[in-house]
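Example 3.
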Amino acid sequence: MIRIKKIAFENYRQYKNISVSFDDNSEHNLHILRAKNGTGKTTFLNGILWCLYEHEHYLNDKDKALPIANSTAVENTEEKNSIRVRVNLLLEDETNNIEFERTQIFTVSASPLSGKKNAYPGSSTLKVTITPKDKPENTKVSEDDLEVQSLVKQYFDEAIYDYYFFDGENLKNYFSQGKSEKIKSSIFNISQVTLLENAARHARSMSEEKSRKSAKIKGDNGNLYDEVSQLASDIDRLEKENKKIDEELPELKKKVADADAALEGYAPIRMNIERRKVLDGEYRATKSGYDDFKDKKRVFIRKYLTLLNYYPRVKNTLEIIHQKQKDGKLPPSIDKKQVCEILENHVKNCPVCNAEIDENAITHLQSVLNELDVSSATSNYLMEIKSSLEEIVSECESFPDERDKLIQEEKYYVDELAKKELELQQISAFLTAYSNADGESIDVKKIEAERESNRQKITSKEQRKLLNERDIKDYKKEKEQKEGEIKKQEGKRDNKALLNRQVTILRRLSSSFDLVQKGIMDDLKDDIQKETWNRFESMIWKRNTFGSLSINDSYEITVLNKAGNEMTGSLSATEYMALAYSFTLAIHEASGKNCPLVVDSPLGRVSDENRENMARELLEVSKEKQIIMLFTPDEYSEDVSKVYDGTIASIRDISLSSDESEVERVGE
Amino acid sequence: MNQKLKGLVNRMADDTRLYINKNNRKLLDDWDAKDILGFHMTEAKDIFLLASALGLDTPTDIVGTKDGYFRTDAKNYKTYDKALLSSVMLGTVEDVEDIDKYATEIINYNEAERCAESGFKILKEKIEDVNCDFELLEKRLISELNLLYEKNVKANL
């Protein structure tokens, strides 16, 4: 059970310096404070609310109310001095003493016209001190805003403050629209169902995020696999073809060599064959020279593409150097950098001769500096590159000669090759048309035709082989790239599979959380419904009217008669109050924290014999729960006093001072 | 220091290493594989010089990662090469009083990197334009050399 041990006020409205203890000295934890209207009954309740929430929820009109700071204290305080307003609420549960203390400092100032003093509020602070009963040395003090708010929420959630600090005159509030949602969220919060809701929401949002990520990953390698497979097959085909060519070429070359040998052995055409041999050799040598020339030509293109583009800048650089040299400024006889350093650093002695650098020397050095316009470093730099620049300029200027030589050389190769090719063709044509005399053992025409055919086959196959080799190289490179891509994609696909697994688990998890949460919510609602009905039934004298009570998922209450018809709207004020008490106590029960109940006008709207019934019922409740009731003397009527006098823990009266400006005492 | 120089110095990284855009590596591998213009047998510094020459009038910043391409402290890097790269900025000097500021490797090398960045793009376009007919490319470049000579050299002789 959580109970209020003491409430202390300092300069809080009419409670200037009052402390009220609530001792645990009776079977019934019921305390009654009696006060006439306007004495400070509701202020007492508001004091607790202000301490916990900084809001005085039961203040009728905040704007027209007196300031929080006690008016006598304000009057008695010098201008510009401050007043401390403080409410201290000391609770206890089975293991701890819990102290909530709100303090607010007000600064007093007087109106220049009327001289009336006013108190201007500073910020208020709430401190929560938790002291373990068995280990007071482990006391924990919290002043951090979030922490203290969380502690307040644990004990008296502000969302349902009026279910802890009850106003019997204000029953309409208990079942007003919008209230049920607050009750629901507060109950869930207290019973930690919200944790499950948050966990489910978190799991859902994670699963959605992972699902989005997974959808973005394109794990389909279908085309790439096909392409790699196609490339592999092409490479294989070309390699086989080249292998076949390699096998065929020696045979073809042998046939050509055999034909040459056969033809060479035939005297009438021997000279032609020998000439062809020479020509073949010369052709191959020229061809090889031409290939080398082509490399030379590419070097020429690269070189002059670079030099001719650079030429204007090279020329300009060189002209600057030449001009500087012509003007005698390059290389400089004096180090410009050193002169600058002497002047900038105010060097006192010359680094060369150690002579003192006086005013005259400085003037001289400044005039020298004005004449120098190239530093030694620049001079060295320029002189280093000068001859190369001259070489570049000269090379550029000799471009036409170089180009012409190149053209001539190319022309030579082209002409030579054409000439030799022509002569070879003529020999071949001669041999192909050659007619042997009858009866000769050699058929020149046929052999030459076959030789030419084989030679063409060799040329064709060699070319094919070269082309295949180039394709194989390209295909292999492409295949390697695609395999790299596949590897990358496979990594992504693995990641996609992992994400999908995580999505499935998270979805299951969030569904499970939802199920557990729904189970707890249903149980809670059923418990509250049952408890509300039990309490309501015992408080109401009509035994044959009410049949049942139900609470829907939004925590809205419906009371049904025996015939099953709704009659919530037809409840009398007494019945309405009984319902409010029943529901309040059921909520306390369901929250798992047996908090105290502070009630202003506890039987305000209850009439006749029902007052006694309800007073007895609340007395019964006070065996398990602390109840503090605030009555006016009229409300504390004979039928009530009959039940409470001599039974409950305390009955005290709140009395005002003679000038009625403050509460003077709370006592027997 | 004027804005032009400040910009160059801010970008400077190293005076012993010249950089190219990392994305150009693939391009160079491809040209090397196809042996375009004999690139297969050409040193990196000569390819760089060619690219910087083509982009001399249109330098552009390297966007993205830079990749070290060749070192200026290597044995094959000659004064001849340094003279060419030094003229990138020295060759633009209008006021000879500014010569001290331009006669440093860093200033010239950084600008040469920007020229090469642009030059690689120009060369790529020329290569793509001939659609794998590299003999045609060579013919076109020889014609270009003739025009360059007429415009840059002969006109200033």
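The helical segments of chain B are 3-11, 24-34, 44-54, 79-90, 99-102, 105-129, 134-153. Strands of chain B lie at 17-21, 66-71.
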